[in-house]
From TrEMBL:
<feature type="domain" description="ABC transporter">
    <location>
        <begin position="8"/>
        <end position="255"/>
    </location>
</feature>
<protein>
    <submittedName>
        <fullName>Branched-chain amino acid ABC transporter ATP-binding protein/permease</fullName>
    </submittedName>
</protein>
Length: 255
């Protein structure tokens, strides 16, 4: 995979919050159709890195390039048009909308040029769009959610809600998918289902970066692993090599 095109290149990214360096010079290269694990103790900067990569926070210094285009200060709605999608550690589904409408919001995002349009576009307009509805239903079917399309998220199991979040992110047709602790709160069967979903997503050429706390899961799921500790990359490589690194073992024992 070492000759696959680079999808994400972060160089010396620093993010400070009132003097606290949440990221203290992080560099990262991720290639096409790779599944990359991002691990590290609590407070090591994983979520902050996702926030920078997805345009939620501009970095204090350093650069980010997505698909060869500099995106260091590109806001998240524009990055989503460029092919970056993410899910959140705490589910962020629209609670008053049905599962189908949640996914339609993702489909709509591929067409919206402006964030305000995305925000104010009335749901009644969305509901009346037959083509968008069909597109959403195809995606729901792919993720085993079609029978739940008319339910609101709170009527679903937690695992199914997590799947809706992934389905909505995939509806934006991303090239880079950022998953923030997608396995948190899932049971064993749901974790296996998640692994299959992530593999299917990768098989379509999408690059996936996954924040995950469970090292065992990362080892079995990811092609390469990046380990953060106090805002720095302390290891980066194949899961088996990273798992044996003394720095990594020490960082985890101190957690
Ligand atoms: P992780 O996801 O690895 O647990 P975070 O990226 O959430 O780590 O946090 C890294 C550090 O940055 C922590 O010390 C956290 O308190 C701090 N931090 C994160 N976001 C903010 C923010 N918006 N304001 C101030 N400090 C923050």
């Amino acid at each position: 995979h070492d000759d696959a095109p680079v999808v994400l290149q972060a160089t010396d990214v620093v993010k400070s919050f009132k003097g606290l360096k949440a990221l203290a010079g992080v560099s990262l290269t991720v290639r096409r159709a790779e599944i990359r694990g991002l691990v590290g103790p609590n407070g090591s900067g994983k979520t902050t890195l996702f926030n920078v990569l997805s345009g939620i926070h501009p970095p204090t210094s350093g650069t980010v390039e997505v698909l060869g285009t500099r995106s260091t200060t590109t806001p998240s709605y524009r990055l989503s048009l460029r092919g970056v999608a993410r899910t959140f550690q705490n589910l962020r589904l629209f609670s008053l909308l049905s599962v189908r409408e949640n996914v339609m919001m993702g489909v709509d995002r591929t067409k919206s040029r402006w964030s305000w349009r995305y925000i104010i576009r009335p749901i009644s307009v969305l509901r009346a769009d037959g083509r968008m509805r069909r597109e959403a239903d195809e995606i729901l079917e792919r993720y085993g959610l079609l029978s739940l399309a008319d339910a609101v998220p709170s009527e679903l199991s937690y695992g199914a809600q997590r799947r809706v979040e992934i389905a909505r992110a995939m509806a934006t047709k991303p090239k880079l998918l950022l998953l923030d602790e997608p396995a948190a709160g899932l049971n064993g069967d749901e974790v296996n289902q998640l692994k299959a979903i992530v593999n299917d997503i990768r098989a379509t050429g999408v690059t996936v970066i996954i924040i995950e706390h469970n090292m065992g899961l990362v080892m079995s799921m990811c092609d390469r692993v990046t380990v953060l500790s106090t805002g720095k990359v302390i290891a980066d490589g194949l899961p088996e090599d990273v798992g044996q690194s003394p720095e990594v073992i020490e960082a985890y024992l101190g957690d």
